[in-house]
Amino acid sequence: MSHVIRAALLLGFMSLGVSVAMSAELCPALPARAVMPRAALPEELDLPGWKAGAAAIDAALNGLDRGSVRLMFVGDSITASWDRPILQKFFGSLSPVLLGIGGDRTEGMLYRLSHMKMPGLRPQILVLLAGTNNTAGGSAPENTALGIAQIVRLVHAQLPTTKILVLALLPRGVEPSDTLRQVNDRVNVLISQCADNRIVFYFDAARHLLDQAGRLTDQMSFDHLHLTPVGYYKLAEALQPEITRLRGQ
């Protein structure tokens, strides 16, 4: 994508009345740059099923009792594929909404969140899990982390009363030595600095998903990236007390 097109997208993004500058104090360790990387600019992605997925999410939101939604999840296929019975068991009382699309990257999330109709939505908690598709596509950890920081800023500008729970990128690959796991770990070090424990919070679920040797087994992940029902159960079990704690603050 050319710099001209990216600049046009950014101008459109800002003209929507959602000023990321309003939330510039968030994630101060990951400031905006004069020349922003692709991962930190909104982009309508040309991926199979992406536009259809975004349209389906919009349609689902239009049919919701928005005032009942207390919990939202934003992310990619890991978010989109939450095991529904497990989600209902742990978070059903919060009327959770999944805003996940397979293959999505930070730039895609920035685009669709900036275009999403938010009036009436006042979730107490928004759980963000983003970035693993960026790093798999070659995005540098610093650029991926900045993209995540931009999502945080955008969400806060749109939903100023919502607490944002940034999840560490989940472990991928069987072994701790897996190249992409190590790259994702570097992203996690950076995004952990976004937590001000007032608006933005950070949670790393890795220890709940890995065995004692740090391996991501077939029991937890069928492809060593996406979770099995057992993996989702462990993730939900780990998240529930954290979400309960944040709601009580």
Discrete helix count: 10
Mean pLDDT: 91
Give the SSE order as H and E letters: HHEHHEHEHHEHEHH
Characterize the biggest β-sheet: 5 strands, parallel
In the CATH classification, which architecture applies?
A: 3-Layer(aba) Sandwich
Give a verbal description of the structure.
- The chain is of the alpha/beta class and 249 residues long.
- It has ten helices and five strands, in the order H-H-E-H-H-E-H-E-H-H-E-H-E-H-H.
- It has helices at 3-15, 50-62, 77-80, 84-91, 106-115, 132-136, 141-158, 179-191, 206-209, 229-248, and strands at 71-75, 97-100, 125-129, 163-167, 200-203.
- It has a five-stranded parallel β-sheet, sandwiched between helices.
- The radius of gyration is 17 Å and the shape is globular.
Quick overview:
By secondary structure, this protein is an alpha/beta fold. Helices cover 43% and strands 9% of the residues.
SSE layout and pairings?
Layout: H1 3-15, H2 50-62, E1 71-75, H3 77-80, H4 84-91, E2 97-100, H5 106-115, E3 125-129, H6 132-136, H7 141-158, E4 163-167, H8 179-191, E5 200-203, H9 206-209, H10 229-248
Parallel strand pairs: 1-2, 1-3, 3-4, 4-5
Helix pairs in contact: 4-10, 5-7, 7-8
